[in-house]
Structures are given as C-alpha cells and as structure tokens.
Amino acid sequence: MWTFGIPTVSSGPQFIVPDHLIQPAYRTLLAAGFPPCQEGGNCLQLRGNRSSPRPEEHFHLYPELVDDVHTDILGLYKKSNLLWTLPDLELKLPAADDPNFMLASDERLPKTPDGGSGPWPSFLHPVRILTPTRFLETQILLHCRDYLHANCYSAHWNANLTYIAEYVKPHNLIKEEDLDPRFLPFWRTMVDLNNLPPQSFKEELSKVRQKLIEDNELPPPAPVYNVEPDVAQKLGPYVT
Ligand SMILES: [Zn+2]
C-alpha cells in the first residue's frame, strides 16, 4: 500500500510466495544472514489476537526491537492464502499492460505529498507488486472470505479498502475495466459512500459475498490461532 501513496505504518517487507517455495525462501534468507525469530511461542507474530493473518515464516530485521511489531518484521506468506484467484507467480518482469502485477519502481505510481513511498528507485532490485486494481480486488475477496469471522481479520481488510478509496482512487489508479464486474457496484458504493445511506456498504458487500458463495469461489476463512480452549471448542475446524 505504501507504494500506492497510502501513508500507512509499515510493518516491514511482506512477501507473498508460491506455497511450495515458502521453506526454500526461508532457508535462502536465513543463509543470506537475515536474523530468524528467537522468541518461539512468545513472539507477538505467532500469538493470538492478531488483526491480520500471521506469516508462515518471519524474520526480525532488528532483533533489538523485537517488541516493536510494526517496524521490524520480514514476513513470508503463502500465495494460496491471500491471492488464490491469481495466476502462478513468475520470475519474469511484468509486461507494461499486465493487469495483475507491476514493479514497485513503476513511474505510474503516484508521487504523492500525502505520504507513501511513490515509485521506488529503479536501481533497486525489481520488486513485483500487485497493480492497484488487483490489490483492490484481493481486499474485497479477503473481506468477503473473513467477513465477521472469529479470526477478526475483516476489520483489517475493511481498513485497507477505506485507504484505497481515500488515497488511491484520486490518482485514477483503479481501472474499472480490469475489475471483476461483480465487484463494480460495491466499489462504486465505496467511493460514493458520503452520499449514500450508511448501510449501503454492508448491503453491497453482502451481495458480492453471496454471489461468490453461489459461484463456489470463496474458500473457508483464515484459521484462528492460539485462542482460549473454550473458544476453540466452539470454533472447531477453523482453529489451529
Ligand atoms: Zn518472531
């Protein structure tokens, strides 16, 4: 989100990796000298009550700041948990008209005074990111997947959607022609929310969610980790 001009608090670099490459990626970073987690089960990254999914593997970039969860984490996430609708991730650079991916150095990204990084310097290693439109789409999908679930992640996806409407939309970075047409009414409701009844947001989200369920395109919600035993009993298969 930072590259899109959203003045968000970064929690450090977060990489989405093909599922089968999570462990090779972890070992590669380990061999390169990145400091692994030394906190075990006490690490805040692994405890319950997280507001967003926890990484499969992570590093503490600045171990002396281990209690500062906002600034020092390099996380690796499985693609299937976050980007299940997208094609396989590839090493080749995205084409200029790729609807899914672009580079963090892409000059189309906004150089905004509001915050965010804008385009990264082109001399850095090329980092692939989602296009703003596809990022919007994934946040809608994740919100629908986790909506009101005990994992409590829907508030996180909701916040991201609000940021997109506030900071990304004004830069014309959302291409409606590239957005899944089933999501268009919801998106248009989001950006016009100030002129609509407050319940419009939930109503449109419910319609999208129902349609995804009918089309059998919504996976089970993300699991809940490390909850109290009595709550775990009620949540059954969603608890890990
Ligand atoms: Zn840790």
Q: Top keywords for this entry?
A:
binds zinc ion; 240 residues; 3-stranded mixed beta sheet
Count of helical regions: 7
Main beta-sheet strand count, sense and barrel state: 3 strands, mixed
Rounded to the nearest angstrom, the distance between the terminal CA atoms is 29 Å
Oligomeric assembly: single chain
Give me the count of strands: 5
Instruction: Work out the radius of gyration.
Output: 18 Å
Order of strands, widest sheet:
1-3-2
Coarse morphology: globular
The average pLDDT is: 86
Structural category? alpha+beta
Q: Note the run of SSEs as H and E.
A: EHEEHEEHHHHH
Strand content: 5-15%
Uncertain runs with pLDDT below 50, 5 residues or more? none
Bound molecules: zinc ion
Q: Percent of residues in helical segments?
A: 25-40%
Write the layout of secondary structure elements.
Blueprint (H helix, E strand, L loop, with lengths): L13 E4 L4 H10 L25 E4 L12 E6 H4 L18 E3 L24 E3 L1 H15 L7 H15 L15 H8 L8 H15 L14 H7 L5
Parallel strand pairs: 1-3
Antiparallel strand pairs: 2-3, 4-5
Helix pairs in contact: 3-4, 3-6, 5-6
Bound molecules: zinc ion.
